[in-house]
Amino acid sequence: MKYVDEFRDGDTARAIGTRIAALAEPGRRYAFMEVCGGHTHTIYKHGLEDHLPASIRLVHGPGCPVCVLPMGRVDDAIAIARDPDVIMTAFGDMMRVPGSDGSFFDAKAEGADIRMVYSPLDALKIARANPERRVVFMAIGFETTTPSTAMTILRAAREGLENFSVFCNHVVVIPPMTAILDSPDLRLDGFIGPGHVSTIIGCEPYRFIASERGKPLVVAGFEPLDILQSIHQLMVQLAEGRCEVENQYGRVVPWDGNRRALEVVDEVMELRDTFEWRGLGWIPESALQLREAYAAFDAERLFTIPGRRVADPKACQCGDVLQGALEPWECGVFGTACTPETPIGTCMVSSEGACAAYYNYGRFSRSRTRGATALPDPVVVGR
Amino acid sequence: MSSDVTAGWAQDALDRAPRQGPDRSEEAVLARIEKVRRRRPRVREERITLAHGAGGKATATLIDAVFLEAFRNPALERLGDGAAVEVDGTRLAFTTDSYVVSPLFFPGGDIGDLAVNGTVNDLAMCGARPLWLSAGFVLEEGFAVAELERIVASMARAATAAGVSIVTGDTKVVGRGKADGLFVTTAGVGVRERPTVLDAAAARPGDVVLVSGPIGDHGVTILIARGELDIDADLASDTAPLHELAAAVLDAGGDGVRVLRDATRGGVATILNEIAVASDVAVVVDETTVPVRPEVAGAAELLGIDPLYVACEGRMVVVVDAERAPAVLAAMTDRPDGTEAVAIGRVADDPPGLVLLRTGFGGTRIVDVLVGDPLPRIC
Question: Cβ–Cβ of B364/A49 closer than 8 Å?
């Protein structure tokens, strides 16, 4: 595949891996957090850790939109979806997220009209096609997806669509990163910064992480070579005693972000005073809600929602996993009670969740856990 | 954290499942997971969800816990593409399959030839020569007779091409809205003339894994044909009968051929997992050798799906011993329906029950059975 294979080249990866290993000081251990769930997914899907020396540990961060959604909000969304007038629309990875009484899939099986969409604009199409129904878009995600939700609301307003609304769960990335930096149990040597979030917010908002908190950060793309290169950049910074924000993903991320997108978001949405994050608790000014002027598109105002807070099951340690304090397999229910088919915690649901990525792809890592046995040689059969 | 309610279902799941013990080393945890994976599954849902039809873990659980439990017998227990049965010394294969694909017509085929080829292929994967098919139709009130005629004509052509006769059938009509146009069920009987015993449990370390051509064409074609995605690609379904190719494989490989499976719902990844578990072996696949058309790879990349899990309707997976592999591969590539056949991996002894992928990037990862269903009603 053109423009993709180039970023997945094994020989280049081996070369960068060798350079990374050469930069590692003997006896020192390194821990880098990839904030974004998309990075977590790439790391496991391509077996990226096989190119890293054992002294480098990748810590999986909170940047998986589905993972940080608290159970109470899922319950609220399902309550809206159960209204017989409603067509609920959501991204596919939302479908299996458990609330306190089942998931979207379960609600759908019980008769709720819940449809998977690839874009909020698809939800708008459904609204136009079903004027007698009330179409709600379950909006989740960090700054990456917020502008498209905001644009969709603007378009609905322009068209005068009266049967479309958004259940807004959009969150912002800096507050949880600050919360993680404040956490006493975590020793990090640097951050692999979120790529697509940064296309919107740019690189400037991370500056305090380097200048005040003393951690280098490299904004990285989503192909495996992007991530490997960003780890190399972090190692070079550490070796040279520098601590800066760098942009590895320059082909997509402008240093100053996307001003137009930020304006659109600002037009439609404002920060909430506080928002509950699964596993991280309540974080001030960490999520967005619709402004008063767009109340007509705000499902939270249009529908009666239970708004109950639901505690995670005690055994679920998603919070520790989301903060990087626990490796997925160190959770007491990982892979036994909590599996992708019967997830207890959200980290096991989304393909971007650290637990799901580790379970589905990383559960077997030859170089790290089974170095002794060798895989058979690649098969060559031919005439 | 204080809260208004707690989630009862989660506590319930926790009470039933074992907890991780005091040893939290990665190795110990992985060993416990493998133990849990091999337990007899149970259906926890109160209602059927689309995941139960996806061909992944939920489907396997439903089959095992509901159908196998009720119908248990030696022929069914092998859970092959069809049943291998014997009467008065005649070795037969018997299979059935229902078709609910949406849309009914798509580039490269329609529900009619799909229903014939699918059942022909299930027989072929048992090592049988397909002989007779049945066809049952559930028609929705209001369905156009002209469309029905088009579908039936397509079935007739496919049957002729595959050398089978449709010898019995059934018709039912349900009210508007009770079926989406039409559903078709076919069953088939074939005779197993070659002595080779094919069994998903027969793979052995050292064996070679072949596929008969590029994977994922059918699933991606259907997805695009639905027109919901604003994607265009020059692709057609791979629906085709495989019985002649399967016969050629058996003639070239003899009893060195261990397993034949057509990679339908759940794709090549699901088939390989079934083989790994049934044979208690590892299957190691080399990503760079897996044939995927650029159009399929591109669409799958955009949609975030893995071609390894996408359905094919005219591709098969062959597990054959290493010595016979070159002859089998040559026999396949010599035929027009197997020109693009290649070896994609090998069977190993460790870690048993798992499929591993050596990625093009140079890492190794697991290829597990799919949980959810990104592509409902693909066949």
Answer: no
Other beta carbons less than 10 A from residue A122's beta carbon: 19
Q: What is the pLDDT of residues B269-294, one digit of tens each?
A: 999 999 999 999 999 999 999 999 99
Whether A339 and B8 lie within 8 Å, measured CB to CB: no
Kindly state whether A125 is in contact with chain B, defined as any CB-CB distance less than 8 angstroms.
no
Instruction: Say which DSSP state B242 is in.
Output: -
ipTM (interface pTM) = 0.83
Q: Which of B160, B191, B222 is the last residue of a domain?
A: B191
Sequence-distant (≥ 6) Cβ neighbours of residue A327 within 8 angstroms: A321, A358, B26
Do A308 and B20 make contact, defined as CB atoms within 8 angstroms?
no
B172 and B218 fall within a common domain: no
Q: Choose the mutation target among A89, A126, A381 for the interface with B, i.e. most B CBs under 10 Å.
A: A381
**pLDDT tens-place string over residues B137-168:** 999 999 999 999 999 999 999 999 999 999 99
Contact B378, B218 (CB under 8 A): yes
pLDDT of A370 higher than 50:
no
B66 part of a folded domain: no
Enumerate residues 254 to 293 of chain A having a beta carbon within 8 A of any beta carbon in chain B: 281
Domain residues for the domain of B259 are 200-366
CATH of the domain at B226: 3.90.650.10
- Name chain A contacts of B10, Cβ cutoff 8 Å: 98, 312-313, 316, 344
Residues of chain A with CATH 3.40.50.11740: 1-312
Q: Do A49 and B363 touch (CB under 8 A)?
A: yes
**What is the rounded radius of gyration, in angstroms, for the C-alpha atoms of chain A?**
22
Question: Is residue B67, in this structure, part of any structural domain at all?
Answer: no
Give the pLDDT confidence of B41-65 residue by residue, as tens digits: 777 778 888 888 877 788 888 998 9
| A22 exposure class (CB count in 10 Å sphere: 0-12, 13-18, 19+) | exposed
A160: confidence class by pLDDT, cuts 50, 70, 90: very high
Per the CB < 8 A criterion, the answer to whether A30 and A57 are in contact is yes
Domain match, B239 and B355 both: yes
The last residue of one of the domains, among B139, B158, B191, is: B191
Of B4, B19, B228, the CB nearest to A308: B4
